[in-house]
Amino acid sequence: MTGKIMVVDDNAATRRMVRNALMRNGHDVIEAADGKTALELMRTEHPRVVLQDLGLPGTDSYALVGELRQIARGTDVSILAFSGFVSDLEEARISKVGFDDIISKPIAPARLVPLIEAHLPGRRRSAHSSAADAA
User: Fold this and answer.
1) Within a 10 A sphere around the Cβ of 129, how many other Cβ atoms?
2) Can you give the pTM of this predicted structure?
3) What are the tens digits of pLDDT across the range 8-67?
4) 3-state secondary structure labels for all residues of the chain
5) 120 near 48, Cβ under 8 Å?
């Protein structure tokens, strides 16, 4: 295992699906249902990969990635945007604000795990990810 993976999503079913898929593959997973919890966990748990939903209620997801990066300053962490629909304009903004990659929902657990694992320390790859990339 190469570090914790944090799943930030307000949808409990989505968090459970991601958590179960990652844990079946031997990963240590922590969860946050909102931005405040994500910031607290970034400070205390030091995840190596963050899978962050772009539609968090009451949270500016584009600002949250910057706050997470500031907390993680000096550490090797990947922050991945997790969204059901991303336009070309949003994709450009996602890259500009500090996300390392984009993973599109919905996605089968068997496809999701390798996309996340590709961002663990020592296994990084570039280019944006989607369900089609893993097909």
Assistant:
1) 23
2) 0.87
3) 999 999 999 999 999 999 999 999 999 999 999 999 999 999 999 999 999 999 999 999
4) CCCCEEEECCCHHHHHHHHHHHHHCCCCEEEECCHHHHHHHHHHHCCCEEEEECCCCCCCHHHHHHHHHHHCCCCCCEEEEEECCCCHHHHHHHHHHCCCEEEECCCCHHHHHHHHHCCCCCCCCCCCCCHHHHC
5) yes
The values of phi and psi at residue 90, to 5°, are -65, -40
pLDDT band at 130 (very low <50, low <70, confident <90, very high): very low
